[in-house]
Amino acid sequence: MNRKVLLVDDDVNLLESFRRQLRKKAELACAEGAKAGIEAAARQGPFAVVISDYNMPGMNGVDMLRVIRHGSPDTVRVLLTGHADLEIAIQAVNEGNIFRLLTKPCPPETMERVLDDAFRHFDLVTAERELLEKTLTGSVSVLCDLISLVKPDVFGRVSRILPYLRGVSRRLDDPRPWETETAAMLSVVGFITLPDSLINKVEKGRPLDDAELAQFLGHPAFGARLVGKIPRMDGVAAIVAYQEKHFEGGGGPKDEVKGERIPLGARILKAVVDFDILLANGMQKTDAITKLDRRKGVYDPAVVAALAEVIREHARYTLKKVHLHALAPGMILAEDLHGQRGAETILLMAKGREFNDTVIEFLLDNSRSIKINQPVAVIEPLG
């Protein structure tokens, strides 16, 4: 159970006072000022609760907590403020950025009671999210299993496009990467309505007549209706529905949506799927990118540019799995690295971290007391 608390203030004496007061109730970390607070949240988090002063040099507490919220949305945020800052702070609470507002000086019993409330809120939020994730994961798994049984060749496309899709999603700062990836996995649900002969023509990149095109463009709507029946999957359903939409407004569905009004996930999916079809028919990757780029109005130019970057990046790296003792400086963690301490699962390191001697030594030392999941997925530069 996460009981980590980050205390942020530019007053060292006040930080020390909070540390003495709360040390028996939580695992505490202190940061002197907003910049140090953001760095601590990124380096030592996730925290269950962040308690911050409002008036600090360089960046106020509201703006700092907003940054921390972006990286750790489950973290409960508490703001301390003087009476002079009260109006601004109340506005921040009303906007939903702050869980609780405390005025200085704050009595010890009030601080302890608020911390207990914050822990309860954090437990509720994380429990709801975990339940939702398990429910959604189970629903997605059932649908994927169904597709793989009914249309195994079509479902094979999903595993091929996911590395490209994830790379493009990261480069474009996709605000909902989980929705984009889930939509990619469910994008072929509607293919169960299509005859194999039509699917074969699409996969071979052959032209469709008007009747075939109309039938094919109907599959996203069918898939979106199925996906939309799963609670809280509206965003995923929208991506599935618009996966054949052209950037300039053509394709399907036939509506007025175009350009950046098309869900970003759908724009990414359209490009990577068509890219995969070109590769499956023998085209080289660089030629396929050129082909997409020449289809003016079909794809989002930013997506095609990001895809080209992903291809270049993939050419410079190789993905492999190694055990801890085989880790070497320069390798990059490809997946979040977790460990097990008793019944508790611990995030040891987030994906994207580059290994150096210090990090490797840290993992080897901790492997004596923590069961670390192995082998470790890493990306290694070629050459």
Written overview of the protein:
This protein is α/β, with parallel strands linked by helices and 383 residues long. The chain folds into three domains: 4-126, Rossmann fold (3-Layer(aba) Sandwich), CATH 3.40.50.2300; 151-316, Hypothetical protein af1432 (Orthogonal Bundle), CATH 1.10.3210.10; 323-381. It is built from 15 helices and eleven strands. It has helices at 12-22, 34-44, 61-71, 86-94, 108-150, 152-171, 177-186, 196-203, 210-216, 219-228, 234-241, 264-280, 285-294, 301-316, 357-366; strands at residues 4-9, 27-32, 49-53, 76-81, 100-103, 317-322, 332-333, 337-341, 344-349, 371-372, 376-381. Strands 2-1-3-4-5 form a five-stranded parallel sheet, with helices on both faces. Helix 5 runs antiparallel to helix 6 (152-171) and helix 10 runs antiparallel to helix 11 (234-241). The radius of gyration is 25 Å and the shape is globular. The relative contact order is 0.07.
